[in-house]
User: What shape does this take?
Amino acid sequence: MAAVSRAREVGKAGLEVRPTRDRVLLREFLEQDRLFAAYAICDLDEREFDRTRWGVAFDGDQPIALGLEYTGLAPQPLFVMGQSEGVGQILRSIVKPRLAYLAARSETLDAVADVYRVDPGPPMVRMWVDQASFRPMTGVATRLVPAEIGDLNRLYNLGITSWLPAESIANGVYYGVRVNGRLVAAAGTHVVSRESRLACVGNVLTAADHRGKGYAKVTTGAVTQELLRFCDQVVLNVRSDNPPALAAYRALGYRDHTRFEERLVHRRGQTWDSIVSPFRRWLPTARTD
Assistant: This one.
């Protein structure tokens, strides 16, 4: 109760921010833009929910903004959605990771920048597909099993310096292409929700010496086809400055939904930050994009 009281004290008159575990409230807000909020909606599932921390801003009885911190990873995933004033209050009072990987609408970055230093980066494109628009690719990809996690991580360590536990394959959907026994391409999932009938594709990579052969489309297509057996929509993220990747996913039937920001953010805390924060929107360094 003390945490709620402290949160209420920092809000402006008429604006209340508080932590919540009310999944009905959270789902209703997130479903206002299901495709943009896909990751957060999937995190409402029982398997993911205990790893999350949520804050909501209210104007009277009406929720106007939401913040989600996914704990246990570094940097911690951070998602915000809604009106900028509410987003800023949530980040100041409720959801407060020191270092995070932010997903947010471009129009909320000023509010984020009052609380965090925001690293530069290109806008991202959220793409989506459903059964009606999906176009499968020709080519052979095989579904990976947990015992193949070593091969998968060897591939990823060559390109994205990632490490995945075997549970990632067991709980998700991964497909790969092998050449002479070596795993040279793979695609998989970040999160899957059978409850919400929604999934997020990611971890798509082809070894440098096998690029240009269409393996990314083959593996992503195989993952997508499997997911659409039990999902209504499948989403993925692509950098807006990567035309070949955009073209590859469009060839599979993925369509653009929206542009948004994925940025590494560092929580402000130094004396100078606290002094200049109220004036940051007028300073040349207010935004780093």
Remarks:
- Residues 3 and 18 are 8 Å apart (CA to CA).
- The two ends are 38 Å apart (CA to CA).
- The longest strand covers residues 255-267.
